[in-house]
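D-aspartate oxidase
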Amino acid sequence: MKVAVVGGGIIGLTTALQLKHELHNAEVTVFASDFDDTVSHVAAGIFRVGSSYSGRTEKITREWIRESYEYYDDIRKSQESSFAGVTAVSGYIFANSSPEAVKNYWMEELVPIYRRATNEEFQLVEGNWKYGSFFTTLLTECKLHLPWARRKLQETGTKLITKKFNTLTQLATEWDLIMNCTGLGARSLCNDKRLVAIRGQVLKVKAPWVKTFFYGELDTYIIPGFDSIVTLGGTRNFDSENIKLCPHDSTAIRERCENFLPVLKKAQVVREEVGLRPHRENNVRVEAEQIVNGFSKAILVHNYGHGGYGVCTAPGTAKYAVNLAKEMHKSSIAKL
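Tokens:
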């Protein structure tokens, strides 16, 4: 079987790895307009799935999240962990808006620890916070993880080709199976008007003394990563596609984070980054269909619209997408 994966971010690469794992004899090629400049590269990579995240059903959503966590946790336990950029991390979320803001519908029964913050722990940060939780989770550093995934794919004979497509239908003449992992690009490729960009801007600072993550509500976050680099955030600009750095956003982010955790005042800014999260109204799209181009037919499986949770849930949706492809392939053979 000849398989084309379109998209070179975390969704596309994880889907390609899953294909090679389950379809050993498949000839897989990954196409991307750019492998080194994706929204995945901007993400802090912490495994924290918000309550707004949704698949087609709650059962499916829980399955995606659980399988994603287990996938990353297996890497964390392996000798590959430092190369793949996966590690355990612990920290806090504080809020004033409501006690629900520090709870997590998807995470509480999944991660090893999720509990109320103690009175002493409230003293770790500035601000008169009313509610707080402590939890342990995972972190995937995409600047390490994406190159690692590409190497893994190339070791299996997978080709990585830089190419942009105007339509997905044109692929049907050469490929039996097409996996659409194009994120925000699916808006034009699929004419999907449910897709909206949510602009995010972050600062990356050098702060080796910060080992714990902190959230102040959800608009202020401090997330330690590899090599003493800490992500400070952030912004969530709905329906904004401005990829230029905004100095006002940078100033506001730094001010919020320093007021929250004053020890950051001595942290040096390493870089500033902007990414466009591919948010899809109602739910993430993981669906299969058959497409036709002249006399050629192909199976097309969509896997996009993860919003700010692409890194978190890529393994779960990839496994689901590959299973859909296998089921549709079996069905098409049975009809012959």
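The first helix runs from residue 10 to 22.
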